[in-house]
Amino acid sequence: MRIPNFSRLAGTRALFAVPLLTFGLMAASSFPDPPAATTGAPAAKKAVAILAGGCFWGMEGVFEHVKGVVDTQVGYSGGSKETAHYEMLHGDKTGHAEAIKVTYDPAKISYGQLLKIYFSVAHDPTTLNRQHYDVGTQYRSAIFYGDDEQKQTAEAYIHQLNAAKVFKDPIVTQVVPLKAFYPAEAYHQHYLDGHPDEPYIAHMDMPLIQDLKKKYPEMYK
Asked: Residue 172: which CATH number?
């Protein structure tokens, strides 16, 4: 599991010496597109998506490279302000998930398209309370929706993907209302950008970014 003590990373993360294999079972050309927006309301200049799916370093690294995304921030959602601290997260008692706040331009990318990347690249939505070697409810797959439009889009897309049997196992992603997003400690923000050669980053997170570039070159920046 991830350890923020940087002096321990080299030794502990060395066990990830084998590159991570991507989990997608379908080629990008056959991965279903998301449902169309359910309302005809004019798009705002900026919108926000809050997503969780394992280590927030890698999730942020993926969405930083998506065209139409104007900002990303890692943090915690699902628990209280008092427990929104990294050192309190382990033990499954805070209710928080490691999450990312994606600020995007709806004129350039839709919420549904963000979810397509979320499901097909950024994480494995079929593993309960874990992503690969990271285990615990803080690593759960969850979409924290901000309004009914986001809720309906997320639920419809999950139903669509399950019906199409895109994955071998059913999707376990939670779709829950956003109560709050609490930014993580400063050293976690854009961590991947400053530490690309650390064993965990190199073998767990960088392959996700390469997968994004390979599957969706038109959306990669």
From this structure: 3.30.1060.10
Residue 55 known to be catalytic: yes
Q: Does residue 81 sit within a domain? A: yes
Which residues have C-beta within 8 Å of that of residue 27, sequence separation ≥ 6?
Answer: 215
pTM metric for this prediction: 0.88
> Are residues 16 and 198 in contact, defined by beta-carbon separation less than 8 angstroms?
no
Per-residue model confidence as pLDDT tens digits over 129-167 = 999 889 999 999 999 999 999 999 999 999 999 999 999
Residue 9 lies in a domain: no
Of the candidates 55, 84, 99, 166, the residue annotated as catalytic is 55
DSSP of 72-121, one letter per residue? EEEEEESS-GGG-SHHHHTTS-S--EEEEEEEE-TTTS-HHHHHHHIIII
Total domains in the chain come to 1
Q: State the residue range of the domain holding 45.
A: 41-216
